[in-house]
Predict the 3D structure of the following.
Amino acid sequence: MCIFCKIVNNEIPSNKVLENDDFLAFHDLNPKAPAHILAIPKQHFDSFNDVTPEVMGKMTSFIQEIAKEVGIDKSGYRVITNIGENGGQEVKHLHWHVLGGTKLKWGHFSDSDTKGSF
Ligand code: AMP
């Protein structure tokens, strides 16, 4: 069982922010901003590649609730999901990083030539 499934099953503790039947939000152990919350579906999906539109639809309002709950909805925030190796995903259970509480930096995502062929 993956580490986030263990958190869902209360086998590993977490600092919870919000929970409902389908989703859980908890503080990131290693925050990258003053507010850094992880939002996960309780159902296991390896990544965004596998999630269904139905779950994504519900996830939208859950993330909006998180931003309100921690008080960053008006000041602004960023929502990120890392996917796979190039995306920098370490935990293979779909999660959204909700970051805020300060002016976030933007840029320098890669050491490669950004004039790529995609
Ligand atoms: P990612 O690199 O997108 O897979 O992000 C994984 C995130 O999970 C990292 O920001 C970690 O700090 C965080 N993390 C890993 N284990 C835990 C845990 N037990 N509780 C809270 N956050 C965690």
Observations:
- Strands lie at 16-19, 23-27, 35-41, 77-80, 96-100.
- Residues 53-70 form the longest helix (18 residues).
- Residues 2 and 23 are 16 Å apart (CA to CA).
